[in-house]
Amino acid sequence: MKIIYWIATAVMCIVFLFSAYNYFFNYEAMASYFDFLNFPRWIVYPLATAKVLGVIAVLSRVSPFLKEWAYAGFFFDAALAFTAHQIAQDGGWMFSAIALVALIISRALEPKVFPAAT
What are 5-14's pLDDT values in tens digits? Predict the structure, then answer.
């Protein structure tokens, strides 16, 4: 269980950190992509910051409250990204699908791996 939890959590964190990296260091391309998907451009930097803080909250497990909000935010981000890519039919849905599956596995196994923390 621990191995599956850590693999799923690592995959989830890598996907979200990769997208945050692109948002920070490839802003123009990401902002134009957001325009293409009919999302506002101004959300790119706050979303990148939220993703980094969410990864910190999940991995540090200091605050169960923040960890739950991070999982919830990641779920909505990945679900909305998957939906937006499906509607746009641009073929960019794969990373959001991987993130969703990894997130669900990570969240489902977290109380089994760390029973005292929940």
Answer: 999 999 999 9
Q: Which residues lie closer than 8 Å to 27 by C-beta, 6 or more apart?
A: 44, 45
pTM exceeds 0.85: yes
Contacts of 100 (CB under 8 A, 6+ apart): 75, 78, 79, 82
**Residue whose C-alpha is closest to residue 106's, from 5, 10, 16:** 5
Q: Which of 92, 102, 44, 49 is nearest to 71 (CA)?
A: 102
Cα dist from 85 to 11, 38, 67, 92, 106, whole Å? 20, 11, 27, 6, 23
Counting DSSP H helices and E strands in the chain, the numbers are 5, 0
For the chain, which ranges sit under pLDDT 50?
none
